Each structure stands twice: as C-alpha cells, then as structure tokens.
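Q: Got a minute? One more chain.
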Amino acid sequence: MNIKRAKEEIKNTIRAYLARNSYGEYEIPVMGQRPVLLMGPPGIGKTQIMEQVARECGIGLVAYTITHHTRQSAIGLPFISEQTYGEKAVSVTQYTMSEIVAAIYNKMEETGLKEGILFIDEINCVSETLAPAMLQFLQYKTFGNHKIPDGWIIAAAGNPPEFNKSVREFDIATLDRVKRIDVEPDFSVWKEYAVRMEVHPAILSYLTARPQNFCQVETTVDGPVFATPRGWEDLSRFLTVYEKLGLSCDREVVAQYIPHGRIARDFASYLELYYKYQAHYQIDEALSGRRSESLLEQAARAPGVEKLSVISLVLAKLNVEFRKTGKMEDGLELLFEKLKAFKEQLAEAGDGTPVQRLTAFTREVREEYEGKKQAGLLTRAQIHRYEDICGTLDQYLLAAGEAEAQDGETLFGMLAARFGEGREQYEDQCRAVLQMVEYAFDLMEGAFGDSQEMVIFITELNTSYDAVRFLEENPCERYHQYNRKLLFEDREADIKRKLERLL
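A: Always. Here it is, folded:
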C-alpha cells in the first residue's frame, strides 16, 4: 500500500488498541496487541508518519534507531541481587532498566501522556548479539526484565533485503506475532504531502514531468545510486535557503541529496532552465494585472517542458498567497477561541482587575502552548500559530494597560475592536488573492486557451490543500466552470473505457 493508506491503517490500529470497555480495560488485551511492523524502501517517510500519527492521536512518541544500540543499552546492565525463596537466600542476576524503557517513563513524566508509541527503526538490522533480545521484545514486549508500560504501542520499521545487505530475516514465530504493513512509493500521494509541506516548486514540476525519477534505488559497478522522497524533501529545504542567501545550486550540490548521477544531472539542468523561465516570463507582473502579450505568445509556442514550468511558476506564486491566507484564517480562529474563553472568564466572579485577569489568562495560554510543544503535539505550523497568538495577546495586554480599562465590558470591547481590525486585514487579503486568481486565469487563457495546459492547471489546483480551501471559501466562477468541465470529461472518459471493455 502507499504511505497515505499505511498512515490510516496505523491510526486505526492505535484507536483499536487504545479502546477501552466499560470496566476501563483495553478491548484488545495488551498481550494481544500485535506490534506494527512497517516495511518499505529507505526515505519513503516511515518515521514521519509515526510522528504525524502520534500528534493527530494526541499521544506520546519515543523513537529509537536500534542499530545505534548495544545489547547493554537496549537491555540494561546485569547486577546481582539477593532473594529469599522459602528459607534459602540466593543470588539472582537482574538488569538495570533499559535505556529505551526508561525513555518511555521519562516521556510520561515530562508530558503527562500515559499512552503513546514506542517506535523502533531499522528493527531488522540489529547486531547478532542483540537479535534474540529484539525477538523477545516483539513477542513479549519486554527489554530484559522490564516490560513496556501498558498503553504504549510498539511500532517498528525496516527495509527489505534488496535495500540493505545487513537485514535479518524474521522467523515465522515472530512474524506470526506482528501486524506487518508493506509500503511502496507513490508519487501522487507524496505530491499531496509535498505541496502542503511547501516543497520547492521546481522539484514538484520536475517530478511531475518525470515521476519515474521520484524513487529509484539501483546497484551499479560503482556501488548503489538512489533518489528517495526524503532526499527530494531535504534538497527542497536546502534549495529554498540557498535562494534566500543568493547562492546557486548546481549538479554537485544536487548530488549531495540525490546521489544518482543521471537524475542529479537531469534535475540540475532543469533547475537552470526553471530559473531562466522565472526571470523571462515575469509571472509576478502578470499576476498583478500587467501581463505581456508577446510573452504569452512565446509561452503558447514553447515546448512541453517549458509550458509545464510556466504553469508551475504560476501555481507557486498562487500557493504562497493561498497559504498566507490560510495561516491568517487559522490564526484568527485560534484567537477567536481564546477571546471567547476569556469573555466567559470575565463573566464569572474572580479576583483582580480586568487587566490583571487578562494578564493571568495570557499566561495560561502560553503555558498551554508550552505544554503541548513539550509533549510534541504541535506541528511546526501550529507552533508558529501559537507564537503569533501569544504575541497578539501581549499587544492586547499592553494596549489595555495604556487605556486603563476599569471594567470588563470596556476591556472586552477594546479587544473585540482589535480583533475586528485583524479580520478586516484578512478580508482584504482574500480580495487581493481572488483578484490574483483572476489574473492567473487571464494568463492561462491568453497563453494556452482551453487546452491540455489548462487541464493541468486546474488539476494542480485541485491537488493543493491550500488552493482548494481558499477557492471553496472564496468562489471563483472561472475555476468552478473549468472544474465542472474537467469532472465531466473525466466521467465521459471513464464511461468510454467501460464501454470499450464491454465491447
């Protein structure tokens, strides 16, 4: 299955394992909760989905790469203790607590989360001395003498033998005690994720044109060469920072992240052309209503890869604004939620002046944020959102102190007015972006008309979460017109395929 389906399967498994009956017991007894074993090529996103699942389920996560551990750190160190059986005193070998088990208890103490995922990566690449302990761990959920706490679900990941010469095969007794999920690379699924993660548009457009280069692992006379989803994502981050610093990314830089000579050369050449098209077609001016008819004519006559690059440049600019608008909306929603909670507090009896109570409330919001951040329950975007909200509340507090608001109604009226100003800025942004979308359709129609390029443009808009969200809340008639036509043509083509099969 693809990584998206694998994530859903893991989430559903966790929901099932953590479900309790009316007596407070786990519906599936702990010993019957099979560890999840995720198998797939390197760099496909196995570790990332564990992080996402833990956040979305609101549970803890402790992750270890088992190849970094010795038998002593995984199991614990032996020591001799004195035990009495009947009337006879004997010396018994016991073990100190495993570093891994201790990490779970530390996580529980730090975050207050009593349930979570223990994720062990590269599970099938352990050393010979540690292999028996790993089998015991998967079968009985213990390291040495110490049991994994109830409520902590074991998940493990590994690479198939064709990707790693160091792997060990599990025996049938072990495989019969795990819930195995095999994951295969799927560019269309990764692309949805990549758009949301702001992967560089040049990488997205390149892989859209050459999806066969998305995930490749080959063995040559000079050793393995490969391109992985993780490599493309890491290259994207580096490339974005390079652009901000005014530095150029050539084949040698690309090869540091995509160590596959042919693909690295091909992408480096494409990137050079991409920058050339970016400067030549003046997309920023076109999306501001200042399009050049001569450049539109050039785009119409351009080869296919160049046309695809133009579309990518338009989408990249739009997606920046869609994303900015979405972040503004998310921030306003969180701020509204907090102001509503503060209004309810003001309506109740309490100590202190309204400004003092706002001070205490602002402190509570920051403590809530720090707690969620410490527990690993926030994405990077959510962290930024909380930072912005805390900053806004600090500004509100400063303004309230300067205004010397003496009663709760006056104070909240001032806060509501400030919130209204932010709402007006958001609405101005929506209007500006909607106009930009109209200019984008002017550009697309002027250059490509009602052609395959327009189909690609609409299809790409439909795969962007931020674009779909904006266009659902801010209707654009031309978008819906082309979208309806695209859906109709897709259905018509599907009907034709079914008829051909029948005939």
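A: The radius of gyration is 28 Å.
Q: Perfect, thanks.
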